[in-house]
Design goal:
The protein has 175 residues and is α+β, with helices and mostly antiparallel strands. The chain is built from six helices and five strands. A five-stranded antiparallel sheet has the order 1-2-3-5-4. β1 (48-51) and β2 (55-59) form a beta hairpin. α1 crosses α2 (32-38). The longest helix has 22 residues, at 85-106. The radius of gyration is 16 Å and the shape is globular.
């Protein structure tokens, strides 16, 4: 390939900033996602699209494509089987609501939904399980992804968050 690496050093600033703003001790035991959830600022500032009682929906700061959401429990649980029954139910209800919001907000042709459980499965944040919900369009693979493994994102994070929030409907809690 002509370009094997495209340095995105600004990502380091984001991750370091989250770690540095949470506590005096960056090794306080909280996962990146727990620190984002607890960070000062509004949900809009943090690109949190929706919150449930046990789980939340976050716009991926480093998306595969515009509108890429993460659905995850509030607590940093790495294992699917480690979720409580309530967390499990709410997680999958929020995945369904996320798919519906993505379809409404982006009029995509399909949605990829998946998890990478554990570092060996490709999970870059394997200490806190999260479900990826990624909008897809017929023919959306372009030369940048094929030639340079680079993504072209036509919608800003703020615009994507606004669209998704407008389309998001929280599932009703079971009685």
């Amino acid at each position: 390939m002509a370009l094997d690496r495209l340095w995105a050093t600004w990502r380091s600033n984001y991750v370091t900033g989250i770690a540095d703003t949470r506590s005096e001790d960056p090794a306080d035991g909280r996962t990146l996602f727990e620190r984002i959830l607890a960070a000062p600022g509004s949900d809009s500032d943090k690109h949190i699209v929706a919150r449930g009682e046990h789980c939340f929906v976050l716009l991926n700061k480093f998306p595969y494509t515009s509108g890429h959401l993460l659905v995850l429990p509030n607590r940093g649980e790495p294992h699917l089987e480690g979720l409580s029954a309530r967390e499990h139910l709410e997680l999958w209800n929020l995945v369904t609501a996320s798919v519906q919001a993505i379809k409404a907000a982006f009029r995509c042709d399909g949605v990829n939904v998946g998890l990478n459980l554990g570092a060996a499965a490709g999970g870059s944040q394997s200490d806190h399980l999260h479900v990826h919900c990624v909008p897809r369009w017929t023919g959306d693979a372009n030369f940048m992804g094929v030639a340079a493994e680079t993504r072209v994102l036509p919608v800003s994070l703020d615009e994507a968050c606004d669209r998704l929030r407008a389309a998001f409907v929280l599932p009703k809690r079971d009685a």
